[in-house]
Every structure is written in C-alpha cells, then in structure tokens.
Amino acid sequence: MSWGAVTVEDSRFSLVTRILAKEASTAELAVACGVSRKTAYKWRSRFVEGGKAALTDQSRARHTQPHAVTQAVREMIVQGRRAHPTWGAKKLVPWLMGRRPEIVLPCLSTVGQILTDAGLTESKGRPRPKPVAAIDRAGDPTEPNQMWAVDFKGQFRMGNRALCYPLTVTDRVSRFLFLVRALSDTSGDPVRRAFEELFIEHGLPDRIRSDNGTPFAGNGLGRLSQMSVWWMSLDIAPDLIDPGCPYQNGRHERMHRVLKAETTRPPGQDLAEQQTKFDAFGVEHNTERPHEALNFACPAKVHRRSERDYAPATKIDDDVFAGHFERRVVKRTGCIKWKGRTVFVSQTLAGRLVGLHETLEDVWVVQYRYYPVGLLKERDGEARVEDLRRPKKKRSHEPPTAGAATAQTPASPVAPGVCRGSAPDPGIERMLA
C-alpha cells in the first residue's frame, strides 16, 4: 500500500480545523505549521466564507486596471477608422491627437488591437521583402518644389462604362497633392492646360519626374515630347525614370494605391462625379492625412509656393548660349543646316533654337536651352546626331541597391543661367568611350 500524498490544500485544511477546534492559540498553531499568524488568520477566514474549496491558490491578477482604455476612447478610435478605412494606427493616433488634444490616447499597438477586436483590420500574411530604393540620379531633393512627380494612375471604368484616366501631380518632398484630374484620355492638350493652371497657382518647380508614357516622353532624340520641350522652355528639367522601373517614382505610386482604394471603390457614375471624389480626396490628403516622413504633419503645413513665377513669354527660345556656341534653328522637317549638309535632329524641336559646342574633335553637343539632348558626330564626311542616352544594359528583375548606378543615367541639366564650357561632360565622355 502506497503512502498518501499530502497536498498544500490538505495542510491548510488541517491548520484551519485545529484552529477552529481550539487545540491551542492561533499563534502557537501557526508556528507549529511553519507559517505566520497573519497567514493562519487568512486561511481561517477563507474557510469560513467558502469551505475547503476556498483553500486553493487563487489568481493574483488585478481586479481593476487604472490605465485601461475607456469605452469612450475605444469608440472614438473605431469611429476614426470607419471615417478613414485605409488609415492604420500610425495615422489615426496623430490625427485624433490633433482633433482631441485633451484626451490621452493609448500606444500604437493598443490602438491596433482595438481595431482588430472591432473587426476593422485583417491579417495580410507575411509581408514581402521591400526592395532597396535606387539612388536619385540627380540628387535627392530636400526642399519643396525642387522636384514634382506626375503620372497617370491606371485607367478604370466608371459607372457609365466610360474609361477614366486620372492625372496626378505631387511634390516629392512635402507630398503635397497638387492635382487629381479625371480625364477621358492621355492626350497632351488637357495635360498642358492642367499644368498651366498649376504653374499659375503654385509657381514653377526645378524638375518634374515622370515615366516614359504619353505625353511626357517620346521615342525620338532624348525621349523628348512636346510636353517635355515645353517644360524645358520654362527652365524645368524633365526627369524620366528608366523604362520598367516604377520604383524610381515610388512615393508617387504609393499615393496612387491610397487614391485607388478611397475613390474608385465604387467609382463615380461619370467624369463629373468622379472628379468630386478626387477633389475630396485631395483636400483630405493635404490637410488631414498625417505622413510619417513629415513627422506626422500634413503636407499643407510643410509645402510652400515656389519662388519661380510662371510668366509665359512671347518668345520662349531666347538666346541663352555663350559666344562659343554655334546656333541653329530646327526646321519644320526636324533638320538643321550643318557645314553645307542637312542633318536631322528631332521633329519635336521643330522651330526651336538649339546650340552646339564642340566637346571633342568632330564631336558636338546639341543643346536646347540649358539641356544637352544629343551628340553631333562628323565621320568620313558625314554628320549625324546620336542620342545622348547611355546604351541599354540587361537589367535584372530586382531593383538596384543603394549606391549602384542606374541602367540609364540621363545627362544632368545645366543650372539656369549657366552654359557648358569647353570642358567635356562626364556623361558625354562615357558615350564616346
């Protein structure tokens, strides 16, 4: 026959029964059992109130939580999320603090748990690894209006089954959303009118980054288009990303994802109704939506108007070239006269004044205003203009890591008011190698 095991509860029950039987004083019985008198009184009280079952160990958790989130704060967080379905805890907390500064909000993880408990978030699984962004080819802008970004968000069908092409323009530093315009196509005239309105209201940027689609880029010399030539005539440098590399304009593409989620599900019935949705999104984006990169400030509080005013001149091709430049006007055919020969340059530059300066023997840089666009080479009694872009290299599917050179690095524009001298440009030397 095995020995019976004596549990802690049995020892407590034995102590309590001896105290109630008054075999000795409580103090003496407590010393005999190896506990304090206070502990003996505690177990006696528990037994009297709840019987032997009350002698088991109980939870030590607090019965009250003085720092618990109140129901009013929970409801405020839930209502904020329902008003902004695409916002997470990082944006909801600073937004609510700005509207209700007198209320103490919980930490981000607690806000996220409140949204999960309310069924307002869903797990997206394991996140994909984020690619390392490529280095900005012309220097990363640090001030508003140093670079704008423009693109057409992917077209979609509205309620009337017609296609809508949203034209979007943002500032790369302040994230300010200048424009979301619902257009019926991607032709150049509506885009130019939209930019004229922006230039009048916000001034001129130094650069405008875009992809290689219509109407921002062409297939000819320097990928010039009528739109980019017009920008260059205003001393705005076109900054084209490499073909097939949308991550080079990643900040703008990220805005497109939110724009699509908040304005196209469901879409408007027609262009007018869709434009109303876009306008409301633009106001919220600029004045309410916090941005982590701006220390959770709104773009409207960071952005400022450009100091360069838009003043369309009657003669946009003023002579900006130094004395050593050869000057030619591009004919309607896209050709220029060069040493008795007809040389094709670009149909896009028809009617424009271009300058040429010799950088190496029999090699001339063709420049429109402050921007090199091609190389004129004289060989074996012939002259031809070649593209200034570097030859395409085989590109992997992964974006380049920080510090790696991009596949096609365009020639950097010359600062307004400065013309290139006789020193060869490094980009041109690479072309001649």
Detailed description of the structure:
There is one protein chain. The protein is α+β, with helices and mostly antiparallel strands and 433 residues long. It folds into four domains: 8-55; 71-117; 148-302, Nucleotidyltransferase, domain 5; 326-390 and 404-432, no CATH class. The protein is built from twelve helices and 13 strands. The chain has helices spanning 8-20, 26-33, 37-50, 71-83, 89-99, 108-117, 188-202, 226-233, 250-263, 271-287, 299-302, 426-432; strands at 148-152, 156-157, 163-171, 177-183, 207-210, 237-240, 326-329, 335-338, 341-344, 353-360, 363-368, 371-379, 382-387. The strands form three sheets. Strands 1, 2, 3, 4, 5 and 6 form a six-stranded mixed beta sheet that branches. Strands 7-10-11-12-13 form a five-stranded antiparallel beta sheet, with no helix packed on it. A two-stranded antiparallel sheet has the order 8-9. A hairpin with a 2-residue loop joins strand 8 (335-338) and strand 9 (341-344). Helix 1 runs antiparallel to helix 2 and helix 1 (8-20) packs across helix 3.
